[in-house]
Amino acid sequence: MKDLFSKIYRDKGPLGKWADQAEGYFVFPKLEGQISNRMKFQGREVITWSINDYLGLANHPEVRKADEEAVKKWGSAYPMGARMMSGHTDLHEQLQNELAEFVSKEAAYVLNFGYQGILSTIDALVGKDDVIVYDVDAHACIIDGVRLHLGKRFTYKHNDLDSIELNLARAEKIAEQTGGGVLFISEGVFGMRGEQGKLKEIVELKKKYNFRLLVDDAHGFGTLGKTGAGAGEEQGVQDQIDVYFATFAKSMASTGAFIAADKEIIDYLKYNLRSQMFAKSLQMSLVEGALKRLDLIRKSPEFKNKLWDNVNALQNGLKAKGFDIGTTTSCVTPVYLKGSIPEAMALVKDLRENFGIFCSIVVYPVIPKGLILLRMIPTATHTMEDIEITLDAFSAIRERLENGTYKKLSQALMEKMGE
User: 215-242: buried (b, 16+ CB within 10 Å) or exposed (e) per residue?
Assistant: First the structure.
């Protein structure tokens, strides 16, 4: 019999094998200073494109004041206990009611964390006789939720309507045999590609197939739609989303999440969400902070307007310079380049050290081998100067990638790795 840990010593995994070269710089980097368009990395100022503070609320004076007063009032512990046992308050209910109204649903339920929340929501909605249909590019939290399912599950090709319909037909056939139902899961905005889920087309298929729709709108909430209510509002189908999920970790610049649906559905979920029934309630300071953030989102459309001014300037500028940004229809701005993992490391180091640009690098296994994805998150705090500097820097690093500069620099790294 093998030692359980033998695989750990033998194989660090596709990302872990680069830990000695990457940790502390390419992964687990330490950004310093207040959350902003410009922060410090290893003592140098950098333009940051990796912070999910879409609306710039993290350090808004009213938000900081509300957070500070809430911590002074409640501390960081209250309430102590799960919502069902001892962690429920009037403020939790107030936040739920305001969130439900904002996203045009009958009811909402506040969650302590987004990842656990969506995972547990999936688990609560389906039983062994039910079938799940979900996008192959779904976020890890959705995949982990689906892994808990004891019944059948099918992935469809990303945003592919033919594949969607094919798998809905398969799911419906099986559900008819088992006596179960079908849960369809899409994201409002896919966080890597930046594409919106095809919610309008998906809900149209309800006329032909019997399924319920769960939408994870982490990146759409606060950024899309006339009021900021998300991808469903943007596409005019918010009322056709059966269960709506969003996190506080993006536009709200905080911690926590919520689900919204018909009252009967929320009443069921709050009694069956294991990650909420058996875990600590969202702290009061975060609840009060969320109320202030939601109030600003409702009353201050200029935050979203400024965000989109920056998004359009960045994305149009990249396209004008011939960069491939895929088919993003959101604030998420992917820049696709061709190269190896060592070349990607050399490229990102050049961006940070010589151009003062900090953005996330995404490589295999998250995306196919041979591709480099520089994932950029514009925010309302970025300036046109930030964008111009970044566009010039990207032109320079693309030229160096294409003329082999990074390949030469990466060879030393490969030799060090013994490959």
Answer: bbbbbbbbbbbeebbbbbbbbebbebbb
Residue type, 324: D
Inter-residue contact 95 to 107 (CB < 8 Å): no
Which has the closest alpha carbon to 297: 255, 250, 332? 250
Distance CA 117, CA 246 (A): 10
Q: How buried is 205 (Cβ within 10 angstroms: 0-12 exposed, 13-18 middle, 19+ buried)?
A: middle
**Single-letter amino acid code for the residue at 60:** H
Q: Are 219 and 233 in contact (CB under 8 A)?
A: no
Concatenate the DSSP letters of all residues of 105-133 into one string. Answer: -SEEEEES-HHHHHHHHHHHH--TT-EEE
Determine the Cα–Cα distance for residues 34 and 80; give it in Å rounded to an integer: 29
What pLDDT, on a 0 to 100 scale, did the predictor assign at position 411?
A: 75
Residues 6+ apart with CB under 8 A from 141: 114, 115, 118, 119, 216
pTM here is 0.93
pLDDT single digits (tens) 168-179 = 999 999 999 999
Supply the pLDDT for residue 414.
60
Q: Which of 315, 309, 326, 321 is nearest to 383 (CA)?
A: 309
What contacts 220, CB < 8 A, 6 or more positions away? 188, 189, 196, 230, 231, 232, 234, 246, 330
Compute the Cα dihedral for 25, 114, 278, 66 and give only its sign. Answer: positive
Cβ neighbours for 265, distance < 8 A, ≥ 6 positions apart: 107, 242, 243
Specify whether the CB–CB gap between 278 and 82 falls below 8 A.
Answer: yes
Q: Where are the beta strands (DSSP E) in 202-247?
A: 212-216, 243-247
Residues paired with 373 in a beta bridge = 336, 362
Q: How far apart are CA 358 and CA 376, in angstroms?
A: 9
Residue 419 — very low, low, confident or very high, per pLDDT cuts 50/70/90?
A: very low
Cβ atoms within 10 Å of 147's Cβ, excluding its own: 11
Q: Is the dihedral of CA 43, 46, 49, 55 positive or negative?
A: positive
| Percentage of the chain lying above the pLDDT 70 cut | 98
Name the band, by pLDDT with cuts 50, 70 and 90, for residue 90.
very high
Domains and CATH numbers, the chain: 6-54+302-417 (3.90.1150.10), 61-299 (3.40.640.10)
CB 58 within 8 A of CB 35: yes
